[in-house]
Amino acid sequence: MPDESGGKGRARVAPEERRQYLRIRKEVQLSCRIVSTPEDRADISTRNLSTGGLLISTRKKLPVGACVQFRAAVEDQTIAFSVTGRVVWTDVNPISGRHEAGVCLIGLDASQRHNILSLIGKGSGQEGTERRHYIRLLRHLLVEYRVAHKLMQRWRPAHTQDISLGGMCLVTEERLWPSNAVTTRIHLDDLLGRPLEIEGVVLQCAAANDALNRLLTSVRFQKMADEARQRLAAYISRMLSTRAFDIGGDQQKTES
């Protein structure tokens, strides 16, 4: 990507493109590597974030046009995932003397964009809701459930709208009432095949406002075995990670 800045190292970006995404000023520590030179790694911090890109601060200048991969870790959730981007401009901060770069994220799907917003939300004054305590994966997964006090009830089918280490939003056909304890079997589409069995409690149930008159039921997890938590965290990490692309669009091998 050519440098069109007239010598300052910053490529011109149209104002409408710059403001296409909501940007939140937030410092997040990330690990960064240039895809073409995977042995060259650096720890960086962000100045702001959006679902379209990020502004980063580094000690070492990144070349304009370079394809870079960032690894983010949410330590309290044992979730780590990677996203890929391309450097679109660079500059030097006259106060700190550090190099700054604007990076456009590439290869994100809707779920990954959603979860970058969840990561942003942890620092934007929205920690009061359960949704913002955990990174949620938008994923359609088969779930079987039954209400705990109905001992003879058969397992009922449902599917997830999203899921996190703290709970999930289920699409159900029957109304479940707040404070109902439920036992769930969650069928992850991973290699193990067997479902996760997790106990939870219903927080709320509301109409999905679709033609099928289905309901959106929020469930908070209450009892989860360590093995199940580790498996779910690894699954969410894998689903959030993007593969690295070079600037020509060819896929590169990335670390698992």
Account of the 3D structure:
It is a single chain. The protein has 256 residues and is mainly beta. It folds into two domains: 15-128, Thrombin, subunit H, CATH 2.40.10; 136-226, Thrombin, subunit H, CATH 2.40.10. It is built from three helices and 14 strands. It has helices at residues 15-18, 110-121, 226-240, and strands spanning 24-25, 29-34, 37-49, 53-58, 67-74, 79-92, 99-106, 137-138, 142-147, 156-163, 167-172, 181-187, 196-207, 215-223. A six-stranded antiparallel beta barrel has the order 2-3-4-7-6-5. Strand 3 (37-49) and strand 4 (53-58) form a beta hairpin. It starts with 14 loop residues before the first helix and ends in a 16-residue tail after the last helix. Mean pLDDT is 77; it is low at 1-22, 122-131 and 246-256.
Say how many strands there are.
14
Beta content: 35-45%
SS element count, helices:
3
For the record, the CATH class of the largest domain is Mainly Beta
Strand order of the largest sheet: 2-3-4-7-6-5
Morphology = elongated
Query: So, CATH architecture of the largest domain?
Result: Beta Barrel
Category from helices, strands and their pairing: mainly beta
Q: How confident is the prediction overall: mean pLDDT?
A: 77
Number of domains as seen in the coordinates: 2
CATH topology of the largest domain: Thrombin, subunit H
CATH superfamily of the largest domain: predicted glycosyltransferase like domains
C-alpha termini separation: 28 Å
Order of helices and strands, N to C? HEEEEEEEHEEEEEEEH
Give the helix level as a range of percent: 10-25%
Main sheet specs: 6 strands, antiparallel, barrel
